[in-house]
Amino acid sequence: MITGKPLFTAEQIQSRVKELAKDISDYYKKKDLLAVGILKGAFMFFSDIVRQIEIPLTVDFIIATSYIKTQTTGDVKVFYDIRGDVSDKHILLIEDIVDTGVTLNHIRERVLTRNPKSLRICAFLDKRERRIVDVPLDYIGYTIPNEFVVGYGLDYDNKYRNLPYISIFKKKI
Ligand code: 5GP
Fold first, then answer.
1. Ligand 1 pocket residue status of 100, Cβ below 6 Å
2. pLDDT tens digits for 9-64?
3. Ligand 1 close to Cβ of residue 48 (< 6 A)
4. Which one of 2, 40, 84, 155 counts the least CB within 10 Å of its CB?
């Protein structure tokens, strides 16, 4: 169940997204940007942030999973990957949350084998204290404590993704 007040309200989220989009627009000016959303979790963050980025860009997605309910399996499966040649693209991976770093590290290494011009990462939430694999994050929305969160694209058992805010989730006991 969802506990207490939202950790981040819809208004807080939208204002942080705008700030991140401004930094991204400044950095990628005159660069051929390919924004890659990591699904499913990042679908809402991705669609919000690309609408705030003020430079031309193309989009693609990676569908990957390593979680069952609230536990990582450590075994990352990719169901859909970026299409075509990316050797002339500056790729920005857009992720919902980084926890142990296992999923993102796997995806990062996989994308690097495609030889993009550059690769940067934007994660909305960073659960830094849980990190096992050190993945470089270039843009971070918020650093959060070690709690399981839902909403704004993040699920528990595929539910709660549609909430416009982010809340802490506790299993009923
Ligand atoms: P990692 O491989 O970094 O441990 O996990 C990354 C993935 O686990 C995220 O993309 C997300 O799908 C899921 N995840 C990690 N922490 C949370 C959390 O607090 N809430 C939700 N809903 N998913 C999480």
1. yes
2. 999 999 999 999 999 999 999 999 999 999 999 999 999 999 999 999 999 999 99
3. no
4. 84
What's the confidence (pLDDT) of residue 24?
98
Instruction: Look up the pTM and report it.
Output: 0.94
Span 101-157, pLDDT tens digits:
999 999 999 999 999 999 999 999 999 999 999 999 999 999 999 999 999 999 999
Kindly state the tokens that stand for 96.
């919902």
Is the torsion defined by CA of 23, 16, 166, 137 positive or negative? Answer: positive
List, in order, residues 6 or more apart from 131 with CB less than 8 Å away.
98, 99, 100, 101
| Atom number in ligand 1 closest to CA 130 | 4
Classify residue 54 as left (phi > 0), alpha (psi -120 to 50) or beta. Answer: alpha
Atom of ligand 1 nearest to the CA of 98: 3
Q: Which residue minimizes the CA distance to atom 17 of ligand 1?
A: 148
In the chain, what are the domains? 8-163 (3.40.50.2020)
What is the CA(31)–ligand 1 centre distance, in A? 30
Ligand 1 proximity of 43 Cβ (cutoff 6 Å)? no
